[in-house]
Recover the amino acids of this structure.
């Protein structure tokens, strides 16, 4: 209801452990994302985009999200998010 230019909240699929997804971002890809708080802990990740953040950073985060979900056993089609991002930015 209240969009933010500072971050994007991503709802984690129910079949995926949101805390494991957050951990995978940092340990596997060197990207820090925040988790949800209170009642949404483990249910969302929050991706900040304050300061210097350009399209290449967006590709990195989307690729990491796809690969982390895949590694955690979620049936994501690798490259699908990158395709959509490429089309939006073209």
């Amino acid at each position: 209801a209240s969009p933010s230019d500072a971050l994007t909240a991503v709802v984690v699929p129910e079949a995926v452990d949101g805390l494991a997804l957050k951990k995978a971002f940092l340990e596997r890809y060197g990207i820090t994302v925040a988790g949800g708080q209170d009642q949404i802990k483990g249910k969302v990740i929050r991706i900040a985009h304050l300061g210097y953040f350009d399209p290449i950073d967006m590709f990195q985060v989307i690729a990491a999200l796809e690969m982390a979900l895949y590694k955690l056993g979620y049936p994501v089609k690798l490259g699908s998010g990158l395709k959509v991002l490429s089309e939006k930015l073209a």
Summary: The chain is about 45% helix and 15% strand. The mean pLDDT is 93. Strands lie at 7-11, 34-35, 44-48. The two ends are 28 Å apart (CA to CA).
